[in-house]
Amino acid sequence: MHISYKPLWHTLLERDMRKEDLRLAAGMTTNMIANMSKEGKHISMDTLARICETLNCEITDVIELVPDEPTSTGGKEHERIETKNNGKRN
């Protein structure tokens, strides 16, 4: 699973706010906002709490957990097992 900030961007749109407005109101750095805009980057729980307090909203209005796409375990994994067993199947 990974964290998505899509709910935050929707919340800002609903409130007619820009990222810069949030940054200033919550006392955040530009790096914090930039990290939230990048896939896989995280911010601290303290910062998330500050955002919720600033926007007077719930954490679900800021983040959501998104399942990672499943990876296939065919092909290469099967080859590794066979190589590990010297080509012998159990």
UniProtKB/TrEMBL annotation:
<dbReference type="InterPro" id="IPR010982">
    <property type="entry name" value="Lambda_DNA-bd_dom_sf"/>
</dbReference>
<dbReference type="InterPro" id="IPR001387">
    <property type="entry name" value="Cro/C1-type_HTH"/>
</dbReference>
<feature type="compositionally biased region" description="Basic and acidic residues">
    <location>
        <begin position="75"/>
        <end position="90"/>
    </location>
</feature>
<feature type="region of interest" description="Disordered">
    <location>
        <begin position="68"/>
        <end position="90"/>
    </location>
</feature>
<dbReference type="Pfam" id="PF13443">
    <property type="entry name" value="HTH_26"/>
</dbReference>
<dbReference type="GO" id="GO:0003677">
    <property type="term" value="F:DNA binding"/>
</dbReference>
<protein>
    <recommendedName>
        <fullName>HTH cro/C1-type domain-containing protein</fullName>
    </recommendedName>
</protein>
<feature type="domain" description="HTH cro/C1-type">
    <location>
        <begin position="8"/>
        <end position="68"/>
    </location>
</feature>
